[in-house]
């Protein structure tokens, strides 16, 4: 990739992966604000944006930073390393007792934390209450014993397809190959079964020789209860072998009068899941205590039969147990052995302990993790996993196959889904009373912040029941997030009662999205009175009713801006549009008309007042000294219209001006060397955080192509006793690249562009720039960082996928639609509806368009199916077939869209397929 120095000196392009993205550049290519208008993207790199490409497989030094979360959602944090080892065991409790590390955390926040300083497997991970746990797997054949890691197999490779990590161990000198699939059960629309404190380690061993091979495959694991104490007076750790139908487990527990939740009191298991019929020929052995787990050669010798004797050791001694499977493989034969690690640490901490944010949120002191309502021990978790093995493991693999059974590029499928892994980290918590709770990033900024989480499109589409719980139990719950006397949605639940304008509007839009992702109107009926009050609060902020907000407007850049702007007024108008739609469905036409009247005014006012001919600006109140973007080109200037696309509504900002603004963001804000821009652009503040290093591309938060940067941030020179400083955040955040913002712009460009157009290409380029910033050779591809690790706003990436599909859905109305933006003549991608998921495919042959919907999970009820008409096709009727039988279908063509209505309805169940030909 290119590297533009401050003086505009040209240097050679630096490669990103195998492709050079852009350049070369000369001094005259750099404008005054250091961003070339012509990005000089290389044709080879541009082709990678839409080509299917190859799945990324990592090896060698690319493995060192890999840490894919492989625990259940809300169950803590457990990483799968690039060589198949497990690390960062942060599953025991929430991170309370870190006041001493607070300064270090703030320093890491300011400098970019683990983005600038990635942590390699085996290194100390700062600011974690995780414990080191001795654990691993190994294999023995007549060629010797090897650990299943990089030491045992230096040529090990890793392929990440979240939620499944795939590790391959191959050595020409070894008679078998081993393929590991590691994951926690993950089935969209089934949050409970995707939130198990369990990690499956599924090994498939294949004989690659022409002779039979005897194989021992085993694993060992430390009893990880009470990981924070070595005080022998508190009690003992105990291992025992548990044999049940379909599994053998080494159950680790602890006993003693002095044990409390703060010690990590609970239980763990290492289990071998087996089917006595399907897995005949496998002999299982165990040991509840291994004297030398660090000696692979001697480990199998310590396992014989099934150890029925429980073993106990004092707290100051290590207690490690193991399990092994023995089987024979004929030439070319394969066998799969499923191990599982389960845990049970449901208590966060003792009452009254920990940081002030935790103390003020009573749930962390009086409630427990969600799985405490389902299980009483890790052994029960293992039992549930064993009893439902086929459904849980099979369902996860079905989803994995469905997601990648697509014509979309591998990089796009990878990157658009990866950020939902934050749900399987300490970013997200789910309490045993059903309430969900989220930080912004791991242990960073509590309260499921409305102005961050409203960007996150993934959760509401993949696990809509959790987002519905957020709306029901937090945002529109009296006494928690909602204030019925004012209509304010506290932007951090009960922690902060003040509103954030963008978060308030975004949460109203989310209420409509959650309604769409439901099978009926029950949710909307329940929350509508408070949703309406929340909209009325926004209307009251628009004193003259012109559709523009002009007063104090608090927002996600940790500041309040004053005066009208495209960003927050656009969000206000989008919230009104969703309010109009909900009001009509709730039988409140008067309120719908009120919303529509303001929208119509605002759509004109926003152009007349804050569109400068190229993009939407901010007109700060000259009487108020505060942070502002004034004439700057700001990343979120048309976010309201982007939200309209995500929920399938019309327009609140006219298309011509919207597209002009998006093209301006490309021209003025997309920097092929965004990191160097942060170094060189010091008009605002010298402080910055690293989210793009020199030589890395990205979309900057705000630039000033026509001046105004020095007026944006009132600096230290304005501080007086009478005029106190204004908190701006590091650099006002303006010179940064933050993934969630970039994703929403990328998605919006793709939605607004015609198929295969330049605007679609630009959106994909922005998303791929993020993907390449998280290349495995530089940092952990599975940890997108903003203010903290695994940052929730990055779940906006799923919106890029939805845009590529042109996905629209309304469950209660039974409406489903697609408008593919990438190669629509030959397109295939997964989809998730309210009650089922599957695969959508579209082809054009001889000027005729045909589609199919194959349902692979749950059910799908439709009254209407809509498609964009592919250029060059024509039709006068639709022939729709289900299970070989034609069903009644009426076709209308509306503004270039095929609209098929089913007068008798259409209902699909898993395994069924709908096919439609437009003739």
Can you describe this structure?
- The chain folds into three domains: 133-397, Beta-galactosidase, Chain A, domain 5 (Distorted Sandwich); 407-803, Glycosyltransferase, CATH 1.50.10; 835-918, Immunoglobulin-like (Sandwich), CATH 2.60.40.700.
- The radius of gyration is 28 Å and the shape is globular.
- Helix 20 packs antiparallel against helix 21 (758-773).
- The longest helix is centred in the middle third of the chain and has 22 residues, at 589-610.
- The protein is 26% helix and 25% strand.
- The strands form nine sheets. Strands 1-7-8-9-10-18-14-13-12-16 form a ten-stranded antiparallel sheet, covered by helices on one side.
- The protein has 919 residues and is α+β, with helices and mostly antiparallel strands.
- The protein contains 22 helices and 39 strands.
Note the main attributes of this structure.
919 residues; alpha+beta; Beta-galactosidase, Chain A, domain 5; Glycosyltransferase; Immunoglobulin-like; 3 domains; 10-stranded antiparallel beta sheet; 10-stranded mixed beta sheet; 39 strands; 25% strand; disordered N terminus; 6-hairpin_glycosidase_sf; Non-lysos_glucosylceramidase
User: What is the CA-atom radius of gyration, in angstroms?
Assistant: 28 Å
For the termini, the CA-CA separation is 48 Å
Q: Kindly report the spatial arrangement of strands forming the biggest sheet.
A: 1-7-8-9-10-18-14-13-12-16
Give a quick account of the main beta sheet: strands, pairing sense, barrel closure.
10 strands, antiparallel
Specify the overall morphology: globular
Strand runs, count: 39
* CATH classification, class level of the largest domain: Mainly Alpha
CATH topology term of the largest domain: Glycosyltransferase
Domain unit count: 3
CATH architecture level-2 label of the largest domain: Alpha/alpha barrel
Helix content: 25-40%
Q: What is the structural class?
A: alpha+beta
The poorly predicted ranges are: 1-18, 95-110, 351-355, 716-721, 724-728
Number of helices: 22
Q: Roughly what fraction of the amino acids lie in strands?
A: 15-25%
GO molecular function: beta-glucosidase activity
Domain Glycosyl-hydrolase family 116 catalytic region: 502-799
Pfam families: DUF608 (PF04685), Glyco_hydr_116N (PF12215)
Domain Glycosyl-hydrolase family 116 N-terminal: 67-391
């Amino acid at each position: 990739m290119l590297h533009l120095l401050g003086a505009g000196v040209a240097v050679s392009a630096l490669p990103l992966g195998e492709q050079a993205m852009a350049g070369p550049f000369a001094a005259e290519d750099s404008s005054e604000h250091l961003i070339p208008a012509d990005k000089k993207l290389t044709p080879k790199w541009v082709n990678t944006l839409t080509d299917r490409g190859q799945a990324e497989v990592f090896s060698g030094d690319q493995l060192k930073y890999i840490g894919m979360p492989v625990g259940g959602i809300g169950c803590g944090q457990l990483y799968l390393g690039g060589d198949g080892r497990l690390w960062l065991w942060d599953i025991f409790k929430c991170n309370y007792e870190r006041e001493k590390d607070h300064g270090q955390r703030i320093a890491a926040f300011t400098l970019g934390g683990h983005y600038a300083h990635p942590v390699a497997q085996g290194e100390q991970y700062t600011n974690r209450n995780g414990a080191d746990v001795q654990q691993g797997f190994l294999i023995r054949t007549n060629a010797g014993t090897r650990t299943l890691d990089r030491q045992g197999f230096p040529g090990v490779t890793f392929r990440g397809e979240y939620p499944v990590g795939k590790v391959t161990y191959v050595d020409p000198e070894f008679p078998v190959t081993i393929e590991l699939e590691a994951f926690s059960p993950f089935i969209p629309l089934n949050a409970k079964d995707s939130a198990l404190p369990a990690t499956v380690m599924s090994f498939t061993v294949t004989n690659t020789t022409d002779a039979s091979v005897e194989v021992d495959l085993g694993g060992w694991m430390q009893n990880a209860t009470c990981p924070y104490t070595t005080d022998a007076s508190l009690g003992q750790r105990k291992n025992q072998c548990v044999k049940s139908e379909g599994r053998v487990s080494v159950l680790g527990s602890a006993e003693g009068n002095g044990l409390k939740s703060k010690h990590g009191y609970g239980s763990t298991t290492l289990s071998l899941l087996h089917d006595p019929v399907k897995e005949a020929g496998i002999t299982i052995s165990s040991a509840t205590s291994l004297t030398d787990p660090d000696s692979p050669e001697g480990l199998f010798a310590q396992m014989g039969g099934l150890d029925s004797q429980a073993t106990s050791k004092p707290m100051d001694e290590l207690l490690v147990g193991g399990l092994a499977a023995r089987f024979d493989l004929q030439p070319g034969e394969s066998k799969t052995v499923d191990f599982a690690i389960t845990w049970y640490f449901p208590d966060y901490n003792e009452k009254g302990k920990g940081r002030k944010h935790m103390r003020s949120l009573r749930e962390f002191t009086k409630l427990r993790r969600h799985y405490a309502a389902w299980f009483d021990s890790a052994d029960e978790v293992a039992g549930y996993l064993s009893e439902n093995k086929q459904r849980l493991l099979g369902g996860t693999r079905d989803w994995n196959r469905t997601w990648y059974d697509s014509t979309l590029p591998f990089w796009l499928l990878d990157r658009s889904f990866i950020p939902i892994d934050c749900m399987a980290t300490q970013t997200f918590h789910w309490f045993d009373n059903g309430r969900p709770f989220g930080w912004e990033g791991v242990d960073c900024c509590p309260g499921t912040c409305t102005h961050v989480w409203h960007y996150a499109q993934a959760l509401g589409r993949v696990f809509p029941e959790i987002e519905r719980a957020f709306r029901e139990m937090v945002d529109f719950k009296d006494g928690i997030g909602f204030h019925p006397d004012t209509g304010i949605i506290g932007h951090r639940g009960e922690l902060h009662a003040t509103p954030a304008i963008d978060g308030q509007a975004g949460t109203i839009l989310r209420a409509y999205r959650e309604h769409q992702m439901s099978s009926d109107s029950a949710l909307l009926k329940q929350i509508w009175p408070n949703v309406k009050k929340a909209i009325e609060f926004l209307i009251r902020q628009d004193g003259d009713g012109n559709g523009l907000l002009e007063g104090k407007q608090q927002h996600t850049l940790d500041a309040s801006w004053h005066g009208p702007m495209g960003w927050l007024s656009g969000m206000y108008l989008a919230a009104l549009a969703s309010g109009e739609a909900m009001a009509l469905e709730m039988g409140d036409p008067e309120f719908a008309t009120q919303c529509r009247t303001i929208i119509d005014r605002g759509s004109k006012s926003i152009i007349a007042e804050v569109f400068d001919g190229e993009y939407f600006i901010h007109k700060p109140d000259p009487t108020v000294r505060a942070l502002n973007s004034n004439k700057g080109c700001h990343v979120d200037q048309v976010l309201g219209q982007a939200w309209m696309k995500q929920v399938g509504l019309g327009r609140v900002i006219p298309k011509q001006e919207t597209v002009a603004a998006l093209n301006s963001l490309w021209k003025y804000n997309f920097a092929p060397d965004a990191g160097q821009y942060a170094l060189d652009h010091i008009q605002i503040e010298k402080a910055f955080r690293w989210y793009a290093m020199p030589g890395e591309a990205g979309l900057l938060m705000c630039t000033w192509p026509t001046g105004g940067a020095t007026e944006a941030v009132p600096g230290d020179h304005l501080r007086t006793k009478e005029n106190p400083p204004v908190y701006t955040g590091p650099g006002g955040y303006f010179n940064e690249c933050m993934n969630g913002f970039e994703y929403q712009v990328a998605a919006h460009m793709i939605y607004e562009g015609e198929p295969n157009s330049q605007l679609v290409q630009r959106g994909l380029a922005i998303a791929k720039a993020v993907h390449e910033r998280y290349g495995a050779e530089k940092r952990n591809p599975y940890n997108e960082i903003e203010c903290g690790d695994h940052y929730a706003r990055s779940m906006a990436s799923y919106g890029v996928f939805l845009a590529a599909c042109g996905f629209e859905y309304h469950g209660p109305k039974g409406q489903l639609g697609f408008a593919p933006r990438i190669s629509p003549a030959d397109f295939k991608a997964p989809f998730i509806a309210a009650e089922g998921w599957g695969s959508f495919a579209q082809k054009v042959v001889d000027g005729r368009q045909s589609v199919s919907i194959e349902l692979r999970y749950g059910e799908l009820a439709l009254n209407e199916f809509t498609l964009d008409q592919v250029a060059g096709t024509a039709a006068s009727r639709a022939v729709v077939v289900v299970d070989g039988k034609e069903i009644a279908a009426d076709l209308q063509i509306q503004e270039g869209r095929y609209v098929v209505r089913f007068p008798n309805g259409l209902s699909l169940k898993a395994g069924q397929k709908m096919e439609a030909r437009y003739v």
